[in-house]
């Protein structure tokens, strides 16, 4: 594949990730429907008291079009791309690692006499490259989901979190 193919594949996956980012953001927001924006901490095995027996019905779920329109109405169209920097980082780490490692394994495991790679070696190379790529890209994936969910938080909470990270990284 060489360096040119490696870079082209990485750029293509970054463009694809950025193109589908608004749909991914809507998916994350739909998954978080009904969850409180700020979680209160409570023990996993909380005992129910007489006051906690009331029935709380979650609000009705809305579809992807409604979620997308609500995001645009509340925060503007640019909000559909909140967290896109983490998407770029994720695609850079995951896709380039996966493609580069697969190319290295393919070169190493191909029979030089027949210039052929058996199917089981191809499958093994794909599993190894995909697993290592997923492990490398996972922190950026977590950051991406957290950044996408930030739109649900009160603005003051987001500002405090960003200030905390800025101070931490100094």
TrEMBL record:
<dbReference type="InterPro" id="IPR023395">
    <property type="entry name" value="MCP_dom_sf"/>
</dbReference>
<keyword id="KW-0677">Repeat</keyword>
<keyword id="KW-0472">Membrane</keyword>
<dbReference type="InterPro" id="IPR018108">
    <property type="entry name" value="MCP_transmembrane"/>
</dbReference>
<keyword id="KW-0812">Transmembrane</keyword>
<feature type="repeat" description="Solcar">
    <location>
        <begin position="117"/>
        <end position="170"/>
    </location>
</feature>
<comment type="similarity">
    <text>Belongs to the mitochondrial carrier (TC 2.A.29) family.</text>
</comment>
<dbReference type="InterPro" id="IPR050391">
    <property type="entry name" value="Mito_Metabolite_Transporter"/>
</dbReference>
<keyword id="KW-1133">Transmembrane helix</keyword>
<keyword id="KW-0813">Transport</keyword>
<protein>
    <submittedName>
        <fullName>Mitochondrial uncoupling protein 5</fullName>
    </submittedName>
</protein>
<dbReference type="Pfam" id="PF00153">
    <property type="entry name" value="Mito_carr"/>
</dbReference>
<dbReference type="GO" id="GO:0016020">
    <property type="term" value="C:membrane"/>
</dbReference>
<feature type="repeat" description="Solcar">
    <location>
        <begin position="4"/>
        <end position="108"/>
    </location>
</feature>
């Amino acid at each position: 594949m060489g360096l040119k193919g490696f870079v082209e594949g990485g750029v293509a996956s970054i463009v694809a990730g950025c193109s589908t980012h608004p749909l991914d953001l809507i998916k994350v927001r739909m998954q978080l429907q009904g969850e409180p924006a700020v979680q209160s901490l409570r023990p996993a095995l909380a005992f129910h008291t007489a006051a906690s027996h009331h029935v709380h019905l979650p609000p009705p779920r809305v579809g992807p079009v409604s979620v997308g329109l609500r995001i645009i109405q509340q925060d503007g169209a640019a909000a559909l791309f909140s967290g896109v920097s983490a998407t770029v980082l994720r695609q850079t780490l995951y896709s380039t690692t996966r493609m580069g490692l697969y190319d290295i394994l393919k070169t190493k495991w191909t029979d030089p006499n027949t210039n052929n790679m058996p199917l089981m070696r191809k499958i093994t190379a794909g599993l190894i490259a995909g697993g290592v790529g997923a492990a490398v890209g996972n922190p950026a994936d977590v950051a991406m989901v957290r950044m996408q969910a930030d739109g649900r938080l009160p603005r003051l909470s987001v500002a405090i979190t960003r200030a905390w990270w800025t101070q931490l990284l100094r």
